[in-house]
Design a protein that fits this description.
This is Adenine DNA glycosylase. InterPro entries: A/G_AdeGlyc_MutY, DNA_glycosylase, Endonuclease-III-like_CS2, Endonuclease3_FeS-loop_motif, Endouclease-III_FeS-bd_BS, HhH-GPD_domain, HhH_base_excis_C, HhH_motif. Belongs to the Nth/MutY family. The chain is of the alpha+beta class. It has two domains: 215 residues, Hypothetical protein, domain 2 (Endonuclease III, domain 1), CATH 1.10.340; 118 residues, Alpha-Beta Complex (Nucleoside Triphosphate Pyrophosphohydrolase), CATH 3.90.79. The strands form two sheets. Strands 1, 4, 5 and 6 form a four-stranded mixed sheet that branches. Strands 3-2-7 form a three-stranded antiparallel sheet, with no helix packed on it. α1 packs across α12 and α10 packs across α11. The protein is globular, with a radius of gyration of 24 Å. The N and C termini lie far apart (51 Å). The structure holds a DNA duplex.
DNA sequence: AAGGCGGGGGT
DNA sequence: ACCCCAGCCTT
C-alpha cells in the first residue's frame, strides 16, 4: 500500500460528501472519540451483501432496537430473527447471522475477531465482509472489494479483462491503493463513489474526485467498463398457491417451508411444487383440503435469482375444523404482517385478500 | 468452477 | 414491463 495523491483526493471528497448512515461513524464523530461498534458494523455488512443501502436502513434499525448487542442476538429465538429478516431476501444470511452471533457470544466471550482471518472463519462472513469489518471496525488496511469497488477500479485502471476473471487484478489494485491511515474510511469512500457517482449507467464523471486520474475517463471507456462474462437467461417455473380463509374468524392457513434451500425455513401458504411445464389443469390436486376453490384471474409474478415464477392463486372459505394434520396452522389476519413471509407470499396474500400484507 | 440463493431500483 | 445489480455457501 502507498499513500497516493488519488487516495488523498478521495478521502478529502469523503470528508465532505460521506453519506450519513445509521451504522456509520463519520470522520467528525471519530474526532470526538466515537468508535465503531463491531457488532453494528458486522450486522450492517451482512445486511448489505447483495442489498442496497436503501433496503437495509429500516431492517438495521429494527435489529439494533430488538437486539442491541451480539449477546442479545445470540439469545434470541430463531423464529423471531427470521420474522425480523422477512422481506430482506437471501434468508441463509439470517440463519448464518444467528449461528455467528452464538459463536461470538458463547465461544469468543462476546468479542468479534479483529483480523481478516479470524473473521473469515465465522459463518456468513466471506472475503468481502471480513475485509470490511477488519477495515471499518478495527482500522486494518484490508482490501475491501465489493461490486462497487470492482466497477470503480476497473474503470480507474481501465481493466478490460472481463469479470469474474479480473477479480485478482482488482483486489491487487485495491490493496495497492488502501492507505495505512484511515483504511476503513477509504473503503467506504470507494463504495460511496460507486453508489453515487461511478454508477453502472451514466456515471457522473464531471463531478468525480478521480476524474483527472481515471484511465477509463481518459480513453472514453467509463460507461462500458467493467466487461462481464455473458449471463445465462432465466427459465420460467409455474405453480399453484392456495389461500384458505377460516370462515369462523377470517384467519389464513399457513405452513413452514423446509429448513434448507429456496426460502428455507420461511412461511408460505400451501401450494404445488414450482416447475417448468406445470400441469395447470391438475392444479386442484395440490390443494391442502377439499373446498370450493375459486381461481383468481390475475396470477402472481415474481423473479428469483435464477428463475421467473408465475403462481396461480386459489382462494376458498373453509370451516375451521378442516385444518389438515400436517403442521400447518391458522394465522390471525391482524398479525399476518409479522409472520416470516417472503415477498412472493406477501404478493399472493395481497392478491387473495385484496389488501397489503 | 459452477450454480443456488431475493428483492429493489432504474429505465 | 423489463433489465440490472451483487457476496456466501454448497456441490
Amino acid at each position: 500500500m502507498r499513500a497516493t495523491t488519488s487516495t488523498v483526493d478521495l478521502l478529502n471528497w469523503y470528508d465532505r460528501h460521506a453519506r450519513s448512515l445509521p451504522w456509520r461513524v463519520s470522520p467528525r464523530d471519530r474526532q470526538c472519540g466515537i468508535v465503531p461498534d463491531p457488532y453494528q458494523i458486522w450486522l450492517s455488512e451482512v445486511m448489505l451483501q447483495q442489498t442496497t443501502v436503501a433496503a437495509v436502513k429500516d431492517y438495521f434499525e429494527k435489529f439494533v432496537r430488538l437486539w442491541p448487542t451480539v449477546r442479545d442476538l445470540a439469545a434470541a429465538d430463531d423464529e423471531d430473527v427470521m420474522k425480523a429478516w422477512a422481506g430482506l431476501g437471501y434468508y441463509s444470511r439470517a440463519r448464518n447471522l444467528k449461528k455467528c452471533a452464538q459463536i461470538v457470544a458463547n465461544d469468543l466471550g462476546g468479542v468479534f475477531p479483529d483480523t481478516e482471518d479470524g473473521l473469515l472463519a465465522l459463518p456468513g462472513i466471506g472475503p468481502y465482509t471480513a475485509a470490511a469489518i477488519a477495515a471499518i471496525a478495527f482500522d486494518r488496511p484490508a482490501p475491501v472489494v465489493d461490486g462497487n469497488v470492482e466497477r470503480v477500479l476497473s474503470r480507474f485502471h481501465a481493466i478490460t479483462t472481463p469479470l469474474p476473471a479480473a477479480k485478482p487484478e482488482i483486489r491487487a489494485a485495491m490493496a495497492d491503493l488502501t492507505p495505512a491511515d484511515r483504511p476503513g474510511d477509504f473503503a467506504q469512500a470507494v463504495m460511496d463513489l460507486g453508489a453515487t457517482i461511478c454508477t453502472p449507467k451514466r456515471p457522473a464523471c464531471a463531478i468525480c474526485p478521480w476524474t483527472g486520474s481515471c484511465s477509463a475517463r481518459a480513453s472514453g471507456l467509463a460507461e462500458t467498463l467493467p466487461n462481464k462474462a455473458p449471463k445465462k437467461d432465466k427459465p420460467t417455473r409455474e405453480g399453484a398457491a392456495f389461500v384458505a380463509i377460516n370462515s369462523a374468524d377470517g384467519s389464513v392457513l399457513l405452513r413452514r417451508r423446509p429448513p434448507r434451500g429456496l426460502l428455507g425455513g420461511m412461511t408460505e401458504v400451501p401450494g404445488s411444487e414450482w416447475q417448468e411445464g406445470f400441469d395447470a389443469a391438475a392444479a386442484l390436486s395440490h390443494a391442502p383440503l377439499t373446498a370450493d376453490w375459486r381461481r383468481h384471474t390475475t396470477p402472481v409474478r415474481h423473479t428469483f435469482t435464477h428463475f421467473h415464477l408465475i403462481l396461480t392463486v386459489w382462494r376458498a372459505q373453509v370451516p375451521a375444523a378442516d385444518r389438515p394434520e400436517d403442521g400447518s396452522w391458522w394465522a390471525d389476519r391482524g398479525t399476518l404482517g409479522d409472520e416470516a413471509l417472503p415477498t412472493v407470499m406477501r404478493k399472493v396474500l395481497a392478491e387473495a385478500l385484496g389488501d397489503e400484507v
